[in-house]
Amino acid sequence: NNYACGTTCFKFALDCDSNLDEYTKKLGSTLKVTISEESMSRVLKNIFVNAVRHGFTDESRRDYCIRIHVSRCNLEHGAEGVQISISNNGAPLSNEISSDEIYTWGVSSNGTGIGGYEVKGIIEANGGAVNFESNPKDKSGFYVKYIIKLPIDNE
User: Fold this and answer.
1) pTM of the model
2) pLDDT (average), residues 108-120
3) What pLDDT band is residue 54 in, cutting at 50, 70 and 90?
């Protein structure tokens, strides 16, 4: 699928581990996580807008992509959860900004810094955890990645 944000076009790819598919079949219902659709939409919008604004900066490129991978995971306290890895092939984070600063309100290169702060706040308020990685040496070409872990809603 192709999408546009302003003048920047990018592709969007989604895939799920087969073990997640088997798990939902075993449940006999749709897998639910402990976050509302509205909150998850805010998280995704923040991540996508930051990718376009800070990573997809070379207007001559037409191969930008945001990739989402969903799989099962174990959370720190032993509960089952869902891991959502969101990566993009835009420019890696500047060496002047640490990964920790992504979550601090007001720290950013060209914006307010609210995006990462809000993502972390929403995910943690819903019992999850978020990790940000920027690795310019990643051989896949997907240099920037958010890893979100959320508990499964068993109710």
Assistant:
1) 0.80
2) 69
3) confident
Two structure tokens written together for 138: 């990643």
- CA 52 to CA 35: how far, in whole Å? 25
3-state secondary structure labels for all residues of the chain: CEEEECCEEEEEEEEECHHHHHHHHHHCCCCCECCCHHHHHHHHHHHHHHHHHHHCCCCCCCCCEEEEEEEEEECCCCCEEEEEEEEECCCCCCCCCCHHHHHCCCCCCCCCCHHHHHHHHHHHHCCCEEEEEECCCCCCCCCEEEEEEEEECCC
What integer pLDDT is reported at residue 130 of this predicted model? 92
| Closest among 141, 122, 140 to 130, alpha carbons compared | 122
Residue 74 CA, chain-centre distance (Å), reads 18
